[in-house]
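Onboarding guide, step 5: your first structure request.
Type a short instruction followed by the sequence, for example:

Predict the 3D structure of this protein.
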Amino acid sequence: MRRTAATLALMGTAVLVSTLVAAPGAHAGLVTHCVGTGGAVTVPNDLYVPPGESCALTGTTVTGNVSVAAGANLVVTGGRLSGEIQVAADGYFDATDTTVGGAVELASGGYGVFLSNVRSGAVNVRAKGTATIDSFLFAERSTIDGNVTTHAGEVRLDRTTQVTGNVSSSGTYYTDLHDSFVDGTFSVLNSATGSVVCGSAVRGRATFAGNLGGVQLGPNGSLDGCASGGYWGRDVSITNTTGGVTVDDTIIDGQLTVTANNPVARIASNNRIRGGVVGEQASAAARSRAALDGAADRGEAGDRRAGTRRAAAVEEAQVAGDAGL
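The system replies with structure tokens like these:
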């Protein structure tokens, strides 16, 4: 009798394990695969979007980490993701009205990360390397608890986004800060089309060096249209820049250094710079309304790029149907 009971128990365990491994959508290895759409449910483990697939979630909670595989898309609205987000080459992560408990990392050649009204951990965009895709990081009305570190593509922090740590950018296409806040330092190095900072506050030291497309602090520059300058809590250094440097309607609670820029930096008379200006400078001239309008397409082009990928991802997920989370 004991032998029969033991045999039945072993058989029951084998059936249970088989069910767990074979279940569709499933939790084999404590990972839930998502292809399609999901609603207000809780995924009690890690979430994985397989290569080339799309997952669209609304009101979903994920208690583990999230991985978006190569060529895959994850679009989340009103969600809560407790762990880290890893996005592979040509992968896309799009979150709106969502909380991300851990860091967000975009791999070399990743397509992009779009955050709107999101609270997340640190964000890292890896260098392009040999990849052919130019990545992007766009954040609006979001709070990033930690550092933002970017080494590729387009970077824009916009519309009251807050970064509690440092922003460090090297080798990007551009790195812009609009109407936002950085509690730490701000560094933009070797950007292909430069950097624009308008209507923003940076508490730490700022360094701009080796940027090819220019640096624009405040309005009336050649790179982007904006209405107001900003506040810098420490020294600001802009050096070895080609393409033009403009500083306008800006408060610097420290010293401004502008050296080895070609052409020389244009410094407007309406700036308030506590520590004065060191280096070569010229007076800033007013620009025409037409020129300002022409500079306003920089952010709009990025929004279109993100919107196109988002719309295609949601459509693919809807066609795939219920993900069975």
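Each response can be followed by summary notes, for example: Residues 1-28, 288-295 have pLDDT under 50 and may be disordered.
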